[in-house]
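quick one: 3,4-dihydroxyphenylalanine bound model?
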Amino acid sequence: MKEKLNNLKIEFIERLAIISNQDDLEILNKDYLGKAWKLQEILKWIKDLSNDDKKIIWPEANKLRDFISEEIEKKGLEIEEQRYANIEELEKIDVSWEYTNIPLWHKHPISITSNLLEEIFISMWFKVEDGPQVENERLNFDMLNIPDNHPARDVWDTFWISDEINKDKAPWEKVLLRTHTSPVQVREMLKWKLPIKIIVPGRVFRYEQEDARHTCNFYQLEWLVIWEKVTFWDLKWTLETAMKKLLWEKTNLRFRPSIFPFTEPSAEIDVSCQICAWTWEKNGKNCSMCSGSWFVELLWAWMVHPKVLSWAGIDPEIYSGFAFGMWIDRIAAQRFWVNSSRMFYQSKLKLNEQF
Ligand code: DAH
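yep, here:
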């Protein structure tokens, strides 16, 4: 009889060990302690035992019953604890996360302006493209009709990547920090998918003497349209519409002839100074943005040079294109009346918090 009790105990321990949820535990509980409990059978046999044997077996059987009910209760608590631990893990919230992000609530004025420009051009069915900030010499200069030794290279003096990296490269493959977003024009043309209608916002770098209008790194927005019979009028209309949407209805544009190796003809485009237009009395000749001239040089544009098209494999006899580049920083300064775009790079939270 003792052996039977022992076997029952071993069997119970084995079954208990593999149980991991309340439902299975309930079944086990019924099996051992319920009405049809296994112990019950043993108790029936005990009835037929001699009085001496009963004295020994009864306490043993009671002990086993207590053991089983204690173990089941313990297991129940364990299962419950594990369930809560799982829920905790699943629904864990890092309360410090939001705290550290509070100072990031203000978008930088350059990002705001860039996003606005993207929205305006997307509404005119332009696609937004991107390109690398570390560019090769061929795309940044050569393919844009600015060969080595061309005087125009001085205008776009830049930071070259260290000699260590550049030393084994062919002269035109040397890498540099791109001076403008124009190389993305070439990258897009080389995909040979016409028509092209893209804008390219992005960061550019120059070796510059810093002042209110010049910084060593700034943001440009490039624009390129290539298709059959594209003309200057398409460019003028698109540009005027975009600037009026971005600044205000009465914004004027002024086109002046200029020279860029990758456009022919070329123009510099001035936009009426927003700071002076609104606060004429205050600024006038002292305006650090336009020096009292009422206009700020913000854009450069015109028809893509036929050489640039043909080098990229596009037939200039069939297709024409126009392009422009603008400085997002200067546009942001105009839009938000900040009189020096250099302030955007001085990590002044007081400035950013106003937007
Ligand atoms: N890439 C020129 C610069 O950074 C600006 C520019 C001029 C872009 C004429 C153009 C363009 O797309 O057509 O100064």
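The chain has two domains: 2-90, 110-352.
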